Amino acid sequence: MDNNIPFNSLPDLPPKADLESPTLLKECIKANKLLAELKGFCQTLPDPKLLINTLVLQESKDSSAIENIVTTQDELYKAVISMDEVHQGSSEAKEVLLYREAIYYGLKMMNQRGLTTNTMVAVMQKLKNTTEGIRKNSGTKLANPATKEIIYTPPEGENIIRAKLKALEEYIHNKEDDTDTLIKMALMHYQFEAIHPFTDGNGRTGRILNVLYLVKNELLNLPVLYLSSFIIKNKSLYYKLLKGVTAKGMWHEWIMYMLQAVSQTAGLTLNKISSIQQLKDETIVIAKEALKSAYNRDIVDLIFSYPYIKINTVINNKIAHRQTASAHLKKLSASGILTPHKKGKEIYYINHRLMNLLSN
Question: 22-31+48-265, which class in CATH?
């Protein structure tokens, strides 16, 4: 195919390929087992959303990094606790925070409308903080960032793009198709990336759709799968295999890549959540000793929801007034739970052990 010509002949799903080879099914069984363990463990947690919020933010950071939107942990967590999250901090931190908002907004829209074209557009609009919709203008081409060589030209024309998204939507909701959900997710992800329906934000929107699809099909109950970390480590292969499907119909290799991404990240995420829960249990014991009769479980929940906090964070969450909040944070610092860090006039209290877990 000519990379300079819009791929308006992009076939609808499913492809004419062997989607149930023994090697694919073996990897499918492994990935589904690990996902089931992850889902089951999350359901045993007393407060899963508190722990998972930090992981969603980490996923947001990594997914944005794939698009070369890079922010430091320090910038990101300072921006998180700002009074107005989206309008504080660096532009890169804002982009990451918008990604997290888009995940939760996508869940809401999916529950109301299903995983439709409108949901896809809504996710992108939240992600990009824009009112733009489906790509209308011609001339969109994807190039190698190093050589500037055109490697792909997606379908062109709003009507054509909408028709291909409608076909994708119908495939996603086809209950008569008994293809394994994870294999369908891999097919869906390729198709969305190949349609490339938006001027910008396609990659991040596509990665959000992956986890929404898993929640929709009840393989997860919360958007916790941390796929972007795998893609970052295998970024060149990710793009090579996408191109391989388009140019040579390399569906087997692409599906295997996505199944391995699910297997590895489900296992890593399970270990990470388990470690965070263990750390939280240990922290509760130390905090009770440090704060004595003034101990409040809410403050431990807070420092596991926001690895960086300030006195105002405690006040704004209605846990304590200023004087008491200051005293609590100083005692938690003295006990080794938090590390104070002065930046200008502000003092940030960092849950350094949680940060180490999130960073590794």
Answer: mainly alpha
| Number of other CB atoms surrounding residue 15 within 10 Å | 15
Q: Is 303 exposed, middle or buried (0-12, 13-18, 19+ CB in 10 A)?
A: buried
CA dist., res. 199 & res. 24, Å (int): 34
pLDDT, average across residues 145-169 = 94
For CATH 1.10.10.10, the residue range(s) in the chain are: 296-359
Residue 76 DSSP SS3: helix
Tell me what the mean pLDDT of segment 267-274 comes to: 90
Q: Which residues does residue 339 pair with via DSSP β-bridges, in sequence order?
A: 350
Residue range 3-50, pLDDT digits in tens:
899 999 999 999 999 999 999 999 999 999 999 999 999 888 877 776
Give the residue range(s) of CATH 1.10.3290.10 domains in the chain: 22-31+48-265
Tell me how far apart the alpha carbons of residues 331 and 18 are, in angstroms, rounded to a whole number. 61
The pLDDT value recorded for residue 83 is 42
pTM for the complete prediction?
0.90
pLDDT tens, residue by residue, 321-347: 999 999 999 999 999 999 999 888 889
Tell me the helices (H) and strands (E) count for the chain, helix number first: 15, 5
Is 288 in contact with 332 (CB distance < 8 Å)?
no
Give the CATH architecture of domain 296-359: Orthogonal Bundle (1.10)
